[in-house]
Design a protein that fits this description.
It contains two helices and 14 strands; from the N terminus they run αβββββββββββββαβ. It has about 250 residues and is mostly beta strands. The strands form two sheets. A twelve-stranded antiparallel β-sheet has the order 6-5-4-3-2-1-14-13-12-11-10-7, with no helix packed on it. A hairpin with a 2-residue loop joins β1 and β2. It is globular and about 60 Å long. It starts with a helix and ends with a strand.
Length: about 250
């Protein structure tokens, strides 16, 4: 009789325990850090970069190598709504040769963020720079909307810049220093890292939490020089090497 009276009590406690576990799991799910703030988007936000680049093009019987330094300002100036009802952030891009020059507008690009990814359209080419949740070791298709045989013109030469891209999140949440500024929480993503005797495709970006892109490096190069021991900086015949560093933001 005593056991019979105790049995309903056991069932009640088990039900309470299961409910508590369910509540705890739901709370944990709600607290997942998806990493959305590594790519903040807001009208009025701007980022200013120092960009160093080397471009290569075949000139007669040799290769012309051009070094340049520019400053680039990206500012979100407006939003629009696309056919799917999603918010599109309009980005104006400005350039100048020195810090004392006036800004000259060069491009108007756009960016879209949803629960799963970022879509960024540059020169009518849509790329996926980041996916969510942002986790170390996750790979994704950065060129989902781009045919890898798409050719772009660099210094008068055409090159398949997006050939053999395969994006992967390298690290998340590490401290890093760019252009003398230390950022406590940075995610690094390799969008491309492929090389053979005649082609090199490397693209890597770093994003700081609550700021956005702080560093970008790209090596998009082709050559017919098959000397394995020669570095790409000297054997490249067309393409570019780029280093982009954040120097100011709001």
């Amino acid at each position: 009789m005593k056991f019979a009276n105790f049995y309903p009590y056991i069932l009640l406690m088990m039900a309470i325990g299961l409910f508590a576990c369910s509540e705890g799991t739901e709370t944990e799910d709600l607290n997942i850090d998806f990493g959305y703030d590594y790519y903040p988007l807001e009208v009025g936000k701007y980022l200013i970069y120092e960009v160093d680049s080397i471009t290569y093009n075949i000139e007669g019987s040799g290769v012309e190598i051009l070094n340049s330094k520019t400053f680039v300002r990206e500012e979100i100036i407006d939003i629009s709504i696309d056919n799917e009802g999603d918010t599109i952030y309009i980005i104006e891009r400005y350039e100048r040769s020195t810090p004392s020059d006036d800004w000259t507008i060069k491009d108007v690009w756009n960016t879209k963020k949803d629960d799963n990814r970022i879509e960024r359209t540059e020169e009518n080419i849509k790329l996926i720079p980041m996916v969510f949740p942002l986790r170390e070791g996750v790979d994704f298709d950065a060129t989902l909307f781009v045919d890898e045989d798409t050719e772009v013109i660099i210094a008068g030469e055409s090159i398949k810049a997006f050939k053999n891209w395969n994006a992967e999140v390298q690290t998340v949440g590490l401290q890093d220093t760019v252009a003398g500024t230390t950022y406590p929480d940075v995610a690094t993503i390799h969008h491309a890292d492929d090389e053979n005797l005649i082609e090199k495709r490397f693209s890597s970006s770093k994003y700081a939490r609550n700021i956005g892109l702080i560093f970008k490096e790209e090596w998009i190069l082709d050559t017919q020089n098959l000397t394995e021991s020669e570095p790409w900086e000297t054997k490249a015949e067309k393409g570019y090497i780029l280093s982009q560093k954040l120097i100011e933001y709001n």
